[in-house]
Amino acid sequence: MKILTIYVLSTFTKILAFVLPTFIGLYLVVEFVERIDEFLQYQASMGTITLYLLFRIPVVGVQIGPLAILLSVALSVALLQRSREIIAFLAAGTSPWRIIYPFLIGALIMSAMGLGAEEFILPRAHRALMDLQDNQRRSLPQEVLMQQGELWFRASEATFVHIELLDPAAERIHGLTIYRKDAAGELIEQVHAREARWLFRRWILLDGTISRFQGKLTTHIEHFTRLEMPIGMEPEALRSMFTPPSHMSLSELQSYMRRLRDRGVDMTTYARDFQTKLATPIMGVVMAVIGLAAMWGTHDTRRISFGFVGSLCGAAAYWAMMMAGTALSGAQQLSLLLGIWLPHLIALGLSSFVFWRKTFA
C-alpha cells in the first residue's frame, strides 16, 4: 500500500509541478500586458519590472493554487483511468479510499503551505510591492512611522501627530494626539482627542483636551467636545500608508481586530477578510474532491472529456456560491461564518456524495 500511495502521490505532484508554474506564468504575462501603460508612464526600468513580477509570484500562487490542484487531480485521475491502472488496483482488492487519499494528502499539504504563506510570505511580498511602487512614483511621505494601524508623522517643522488606531474604511481616527513645539524644541501644546472624523472635507476632533505648557509645567487645560483642526494629512494620504487587511498576516489582522473591538469599533469588514484568508487555502481540498468526483469512472476518451467539463462546471458553481455567500454576508442577509464557510461545506458535501454514488451505488 505504501508503494501505491507513493506512486499516486508522485503522479499528482509531477503534474502539479507543471500546472502551477504554467498558470503563474500565464497570469503574470496577462498582468504585465495590462500594466504596461503604467510601467511606461512611470518609466520603470526592466529591473523594477522584474522585481515587481517576482514579488507577485507568491501572491498569484496562493490565488490560483486551488485551480491548479483541481486540474492536477483531474489530469492524474484521467491518466490512471486511461491506462487502466485504477481498474487494476480495484481488481487487486484495493479499496477506492486507498487510491484517492494520496490526492487528499497532497491537497492538504498545499493548503497548509497556503496558510503558511498567508502568515509569513504574502505580507512581506505585499510590503515589498508597495515599497517598489512608492519608490517608483516618488510619493513616499517623509518622516512617517507606522505599525499595525499606529502612526507617527511630522505635520510641519514643529508639529508631530500620533494616531493610535486608524480605520481608513470609515475615514476615522481613534486616539489622536498632536504635539506642538517651539523653536528650541520644547513642548508648548498638546491636543488629544478620543476620535477624529473626516466630515465636509475637514477633520473634526471629538471629546478631547488642549494642554498648554511652559517649560515642564502645565499652564492651562481646556476641554472640548467638538473641534475643527487640520492634522497635516487627508484620508487619502493616510489610506495610502495603511496596510489593507488583504496585505496583513493572519496574526496581524487578528491583533488589529482585537484593538478595534476593544474600542467598540465595527470590525465586520475586517472579520470577513480574516475568515476569507482562512478559507482560501481550504479551497484546494474542496477542489481536489470536486476533481475526484467528476473524473472517477472515466475510462474512455468521451467520458474523460465529460469529466473535465464536469470539473470546470463544478469549480464554476463552487466559485459562484462563494461569491454569493460573501455578498450575502456583506449585506447582512447571512451571518459572517455562514456566508463564508457554507459554500465550502455544500461543495464538499455534494462532491463527496457524487463520488460515493459513482463508487458504491
Task: Explain what you see.
The chain is an alpha+beta fold and 361 residues long. The protein folds into 2 domains: 2-138 and 267-360, no CATH class; 149-242, no CATH class. It is 63% helix and 19% strand. Strand 6 and strand 7 (217-228) form a beta hairpin. Helix 2 (46-82) packs across helix 8 and helix 8 (301-330) runs antiparallel to helix 9 (336-360). The chain is elongated and about 90 Å long. The mean pLDDT is 91.
Descriptive keywords:
361 residues, 2 domains, 7-stranded antiparallel beta sheet
**What level of helicity do the residues show?**
55-70%
**What separation lies between the terminal Cα atoms?**
25 Å
Q: What's the rounded overall pLDDT mean?
A: 91
Extract low-pLDDT stretches: none
What's the alpha carbon Rg, rounded to whole Å?
27 Å
Helical run tally: 9
Strand content: 15-25%
Kindly give the count of domains: 2
The secondary structure category is alpha+beta
3D shape? elongated
Largest sheet: 7 strands, antiparallel
- Strand arrangement across the biggest beta sheet: 1-2-3-4-5-6-7
Order of secondary-structure elements: HHHHEEEEEEEHHHHH
Number of strands: 7
Blueprint (SSEs and pairs):
Elements: H1 2-41, H2 46-82, H3 85-91, H4 96-137, E1 144-147, E2 150-156, E3 159-167, E4 172-181, E5 187-199, E6 202-214, E7 217-228, H5 235-241, H6 250-262, H7 268-295, H8 301-330, H9 336-360
Helix pairs in contact: 1-2, 1-4, 2-4, 2-7, 2-8, 4-7, 6-7, 7-8, 7-9, 8-9
